[in-house]
Specification:
- The complex is a heterodimer.
- By secondary structure, chain A is an all-alpha fold.
- Chain A folds into 2 domains: 75 residues, Helix Hairpins, CATH 1.10.287.70; 217 residues, Up-down Bundle (Four Helix Bundle (Hemerythrin (Met), subunit A)).
- Helix content of chain A is 71%, strand content 0%.
- Chain A contains 7 helices and no strands.
- In chain A, helix 3 runs antiparallel to helix 6.
- The longest helix of chain A has 40 residues.
- Chain B is mainly alpha-helical.
- Chain B has one domain: Up-down Bundle (Cytochrome C Oxidase, Chain A).
- Chain B is built from 16 helices and no strands.
- The longest helix of chain B is centred in the N-terminal third of the chain and has 36 residues.
- The two termini of chain B are 30 Å apart.
- The chains are: A mainly alpha, B mainly alpha.
- Chain B: This is Cytochrome c oxidase subunit 1.
Amino acid sequence: MSHETYYVPAQSRWPILASIALFLLAYGAGTLINGLKTQTGDTGLLLLLAGAFMMSLILIGWFRHVINESIDGKFSPQADLSFRWGMSWFIFSEIMFFVAFFGALFYVRTLAVPWLGGEGEKGVSNMLWQGFEAQWPLLTTPDMEQFPGASAVIDPWHLPLLNTAILISSSFTITLAHHALKAQRRSALILWHGVTIILGIIFLFFQATEYIEAYQELGLTLHSGIYGATFFILTGFHGLHVTLGTLMLIIIWLRVLKGHFTPDSHFGYEAVAWYWHFVDVVWVGLFLFVYVF
Amino acid sequence: MNTMTKVEHTEHHGPAAGISRWFYTTNHKDIGTLYLWFSFAMFLTGGCMALMIRAELFQPGLQLIQPDFFNQMTTMHGLIMVFGAVMPAFVGLANWMLPMMVGAPDMALPRMNNWSFWILPFAFAMMLSTLFMDGGAPNFGWTFYAPLSTTYAPPSVTYFIFAVHMMGISSIMGAINIIATILNMRAPGMTMMKLPLFVWTWLITAFLLIAVMPVLAGVVTMMLMDIHFGTSFFNAAGGGDPVLFQHVFWFFGHPEVYIMILPAFGIVSEIIPTFARKRLFGYSSMVYATSSIAFLSFIVWAHHMFTVGLPLMGELFFMYATMLIAVPTGVKVFNWVATMFRGSMTFETPMLFAVAFVVLFTIGGFSGLMLAIAPADFQYHDTYFVVAHFHYVLVPGAVFAIMAGVYYWLPKWTGHYYPETMGKVHFWCSFVGVNLTFFPMHFIGLAGMPRRIPDYALQFADFNMVASIGAFIFGFSQLIFLVLIIKTIRGGSPATPEVWDEPEGLEWTIPSPAPYHTFTTPPEVK
């Protein structure tokens, strides 16, 4: 471990401004959502947009600040390692976020729904909806009026399989780009990184297509019982993470074009690459346990 | 090789002038101070709510507040004490002490550190604002079980959900910072097995935080979806299950209770050796015991749910796994007692709180063992016995340890000794108050008084009256603490760098009060 003078940044306005923006976002979202049923969420929407706008400005400013510090050479290898630990543990926290939803999926599939259907040790719960039969995917819910089940589920061997291929290839292309960065092959870096971004966008396009099909043709919606609920929360949060990852890829691509990275110093690049691998691995889990099995 | 140059930061040697110092600071000591004051404010806020509960329960019958408001008070009291008082207090102590204990110039990520703190006042402003909303504040208990918190919740539940999200973001960033600091910022020679125990326990706590706060975020997100977007995670009519809520919540919730006690173990393990004038007995066994407790915390969650109708194998597994926790915890209690054994003990205020911690936390631990026995829990579940149990581990447990830590390190922070007699008065008032409040709850709980109700049967009247009197003694004696802290900040006899009688640790090698920047050049640890 190296022990040069560690860079302790001077006072900064970004954190408190970011807290205010986060508060506006949260309070706005709460007011908007609470007003959805009564159409009274306008103030909420306004606060939410103000918060989002403020947060975007802050993120741009804060990151610019850090990038300038990095260019000025303020970060020792020890500081670089702090960033690496920070990003690794952040990704771990993201994994645990998905663990909560995967856990919910496994619980309802292996325990809750079979019990409702009268199987197993707690099968007495079948008395709630007598005659309800357990199945997975759950197309006939216990109460079809309140939660009308879907007519069918997404076929894993078309769009989802294609999307799997796309995301896995994108993990390879970003690795090729990273190797090109380390070998100082600039045009290869720009090319492979650009391909990764395009693959990410194609993935998102196909996910959107799939959602439209689910809503319009299959009746697979948020309202269609526990299958729809777990399907949309898992694929939805994954999709949001891919969206964020794609944005990060685009920003880091612009930084590549500006020549911000050297073979020795490119933590920002690696952090985005790690994040991209993380959304890729989560997708493999989704493909297996949400779509196929 | 590396092309980056070494740049020393020279702009700020002392704190900035004026109020802006507290808003923009990146200094771990400033941020520690902010955390500690915030936590104290929340402690008093949550305490006022507790006193409202105890005032209503002073006599049977409804006297002061309506049942719905009573429910709001129990809910907000729990949430504020857990997320607003205990957790931020430990983070505050970590901010102040960890960099000095490992010989680092500051936390690893100082700006993010400030952000972690400043999210909290906004999150709690939002949470407290629900008290003034239509339909009132959340009234479903701090564990917010579905469907009470979904189908039957007041509209303010949406703000509650977003407040929890904000607290989670704050905790995760704080924990990441602490892990990065401990793993990456240690002075040369400060190997892992030389780390002070407060640092070790915080390392493991931070890991627990990063592992379970996202699960809490997940469960409140599922609530939000169920309430507003038509999903059926916790609704059996759509194939979901209300019990699913409890599983996910307690997968977060059980590690969470260790998040609130492991740093307390660390503080007590610092204090007892100093005042027993002996080295800590069994250092490495303390480290392994803490790690074992952290591991076990992930596989015991359903002991909170013995009465919801788990399969028999589930009841057995979670019962035995829970009892297993008694082993590493017993190792710790044994080590503390062995450290004191034949030591040259003196009983300054930090030591009084630490010894009280050992005794009273152990009482809470034993009542926990009773609750771990599934068949017995069928009787105890949702009674005041449970309330007695978790208040014994959290008040004379976690809160006493925090106070012990504050007394122990206050001379280092302020450069002044606190008035010893006043500290002892504070201790004895708190000690008597706490036991008067919570000990009788064991009896009324075993006799069958349910928790979270504003009214009760006549046979519970006497013990409830005692508990209420104790609560007011405990609550008001915290004002002594407040006055003592302000007095110590403003003056007092100057403290030496060691403060105490040859304590161990890097923090005692620097002057008191600790300079604004410490260890800008890392010390050499032998």
